[in-house]
Specification:
Structural class: alpha+beta
Number of strands: 19
Radius of gyration: 60 Å
Keywords: ATP-binding, Cell junction, Coiled coil, Cytoplasm, Cytoplasmic vesicle, Cytoskeleton, Membrane, Microtubule, Motor protein, Nucleotide-binding, Phosphoprotein
Distance between the termini: 144 Å
Subcellular location: Cell junction, Adherens junction; Cytoplasm, Cytoskeleton, Microtubule organizing center, Centrosome; Cytoplasmic vesicle membrane
Helix content: 55-70%
Largest sheet: 12 strands, mixed
Main location: other
Protein name: Kinesin-like protein
GO molecular function, one term: ATP binding
Strand content: 5-15%
Oligomer: single chain
């Protein structure tokens, strides 16, 4: 009894462990025959269940087909009943019409003998009786016609009755055919249902028999598994111990993982800091090398005498409108301020110039870039700065500016005055200003008494090859107030008009000529520098600007002169022997600035909006071509004032008042009181040098 009790307890414990193992998704025993047999039995059981499910599906399909055929049979029976009812109604209607016809014929036959009798008896009557006889004959004729009509109707009725009989026979044949067809379909359906029922019963019996056999095998396997479980108790205890050890390790794993993550994060952060510091150092070195390369490139360009080109992009304004065509198509390189990118027709195009100013750049930023060129004018160099671009791109704003925010012109003269004041202890300087415009290929004086007077460009008769403009008014300026008066006077005389592209479109090329003459008080060295500040009229498409009449003629002359400027740049770039300076008044007047004896800079103004990308692309391509032109190093114009042969310089007496005074000049050596626009010196063997007017 004690042994039996012990065995019962072990059996309960094994059953509990078996329940736990069943509850846990344990891995199957590898190489166990019972597990393989149980798996095979489970597969067979699942296959039998699938077969039973398929048989049930077939049975449901057959039941559905029987239901459909039963519905069709009920529908045919309803149609047959409707046909029989219609046939009975038609027969009843035809019988009623036939009875009516027979009654009508019988009544007509009953009325005919008295009529004949009257006809026979009236033959011996009087005239009244004759009249009555004729009336009776007419009525008899009418009754005979009605009898004929009734006979015709009777014939038609008999024909319709025959046709209805035929239709009835046909319908009865169809009904018999339908009934036989229904009986045959019903018999087939019963046979199919009986065969399906037999198949179903047979399949269920077979499946049940197979399931019983398999369940018996499963029970036998289960008994074997129980026996094996008794032998697996030591292994289970070992596994339990291992499991508890793993559980303890798992409890301590998060702490180990957090410590490892902290160490890895610290190492990664240190590596990132090192990489960031290295990147910052490399970026600093790259920017320093970029600045050095740009400085060396600018020095190389200066030595070669290339035309320096800077670009300025105006901001998007309200006049550009709204919509996709008014979005900006221009982008800039954050690391290189000499690169500009343009998106034209969905394709990006890049250009490299000497400097690119974004829409956020101020007038002072642009002036700082050209400041060194302007100061070299004091040292005796010829300097030319001209603004190029389409109409409405901001050329006049860059060159002239506004009263509150002046442009290059006023800032240049203010810079010259400050430089002159710094050198006042050693040098004596005189600054004179001239202003002209080229309107419809006509050169006009903006500071003269008659601005509409035509002027011509001449060669100096002294054989130097320099150009001058006879009759061009020249003002001597000594203060900022003088500059403002000159600019105001010249601005009122310049031609501007309204177009679709620009409300205040410049219709002419404006030139501001600043001449700086200096004398070194200690050595007598004389220098003459000339600063040409040119505001070119904007190129425009006639279709966009809507120019008509005189505006159209102005646009044609503007585009022609700019095209001539492009031809001159192309000839200089390809080093042709002949440069077509004389094809236009503009290029002829700029010949001194573009022929190698001057420091030249071009400011190309572009519009950033999408609808002007074609003009912007053309302007930037022209700027790249201009940038590749080599004019040679500029030469300084300086002469010593104390020669052994005693030189003489012809000057007109200067105006002694602080207000600007107008002076017209002509060719040197003409003997008049004027002097040429190029201010050529003429040495004469006199005994002394006349001082410069102050």
């Amino acid at each position: 009894m004690v042994e039996n009790e012990r065995l019962r307890q072990e059996m309960r414990r094994c059953e509990a462990e078996l329940q736990e193992l069943r509850a846990k998704p344990a891995a199957p025993c590898t190489g166990c025959e019972h597990s393989q047999e149980s798996a095979q039995l489970r597969d067979k059981l699942s296959q039998l269940q699938l077969e039973v499910a398929e048989n049930k599906g077939m049975l449901s399909e057959l039941n559905l087909e029987v239901q459909q055929k039963t519905d069709r049979l009920a529908e045919v029976e309803l149609r047959l009943k409707d046909c029989l009812a219609e046939k009975a109604q038609e027969e009843e209607r035809l019988s009623r019409r036939l009875r009516d016809s027979h009654e009508t014929i019988a009544s007509l036959r009953a009325q005919s003998p008295p009529v004949k009798y009257v006809i026979k008896t009236v033959e011996v009557e009087s005239s009244k009786t004759k009249q009555a006889l004729s009336e009776s004959q007419a009525r008899n004729q009418h009754l005979q016609e009605q009898v004929a009509m009734q006979r015709q109707v009777l014939k038609e009725m008999e024909q319709q009755l025959q046709s209805s009989h035929q239709l009835t026979v046909q319908l009865r044949a169809q009904i018999a055919m339908y009934e036989s067809e229904l009986e045959r379909a019903h018999g087939q359906m019963l046979e199919e249902m009986q065969s399906l029922e037999e198949d179903k019963n047979r399949a269920i019996e077979e499946a049940f028999a197979r399931a019983q056999v398999e369940m018996k095998a499963v029970h036998e396997n289960l008994a074997g598994v129980r026996t094996n479980l008794l032998t697996l108790q030591p292994a289970l205890r070992t596994l339990t111990n291992d499991y508890n050890g793993l559980k303890r390790q798992v409890r301590g794993f998060p702490l180990l993982l957090q410590e490892a993550l902290r160490s890895v994060k610290a190492e990664i952060g240190q590596a990132i800091e090192e990489v960031n510091s290295n990147n910052q150092e490399l970026l600093r070195k790259y920017r320093r090398e970029l600045q050095l390369r740009k400085k060396c490139h600018n020095e190389l360009v200066r030595l070669k005498g290339n035309i320096r080109v800077i670009a300025r992009v105006r901001p998007v304004t309200k006049e550009d409108g709204e919509g996709p065509e008014s979005t900006s198509a221009v982008t800039f390189d954050p690391d290189d301020d000499s690169i500009i990118h343009l998106l034209h027709k969905g394709k990006p195009v890049s250009f490299e110039l000497d400097k690119v100013f974004s829409p956020r750049a101020s007038q002072q930023d642009v002036f700082q870039e050209v400041q060194a060129l302007i100061t070299s004018c004091i040292d005796g160099f010829n300097v030319c700065i001209f603004a190029y671009g389409q109409t409405g791109a901001g050329k006049t704003y860059t060159m002239e500016g506004t009263t509150e925010n002046p442009g290059i012109n006023q800032r240049a003269l203010q810079l010259l005055f400050s430089e002159v004041q710094e050198k006042a202890s050693d040098w004596e300087y005189t600054i004179t200003v001239s202003a002209a415009e080229i309107y419809n290929e006509v050169l006009r004086d903006l500071l003269g008494q008659e601005p509409q007077e035509k002027l011509e460009i001449r060669l100096c008769p002294d054989g130097s090859g320099q150009l001058y403009v006879p009759g061009l008014t020249e003002f001597q300026v000594q203060s900022v107030e003088d500059i403002n008066k000159v600019f105001e006077f010249g601005h009122t005389n310049r031609t501007t008009e309204f177009t679709n592209l620009n409300e205040h479109s410049s219709r002419s090329h404006a030139l501001l000529i600043v001449t700086v003459r200096g004398v070194d008080c200690s050595t007598g060295l004389r220098t003459t520098g000339k600063l040409n500040l040119v505001d070119l009229a904007g190129s425009e498409r006639v279709g966009k600007s809507g120019a008509e009449g005189s505006r159209l003629r102005e646009a044609q002359h503007i585009n022609k002169s700019l095209s001539a400027l492009g031809d001159v740049i192309a000839a200089l770039r390809s080093r042709q022997g002949h440069v077509p300076f004389r094809n236009s008044k503009l290029t002829y007047l700029l010949q001194d600035s573009l022929s190698g004896d001057s420091k030249t800079l071009m400011v190309v103004q572009v519009s950033p909006v999408e609808k002007n990308t074609s003009e912007t692309l053309y302007s930037l391509k022209f700027a790249e071509r201009v940038r590749s032109v080599e004019l040679g190093p500029g030469s300084r114009r300086a002469e010593l004032g104390s020669w052994s042969s005693q030189e003489h310089l012809e000057w007109e007496p200067a105006c002694q008042t602080p207000q600007p005074s107008a002076r017209a000049h002509s060719a040197p050596g003409s003997g008049t009181t004027s002097r040429p626009g190029s201010i050529r010196r003429k040495l004469q063997p006199s005994g002394k040098t006349r001082p410069l007017p102050v």
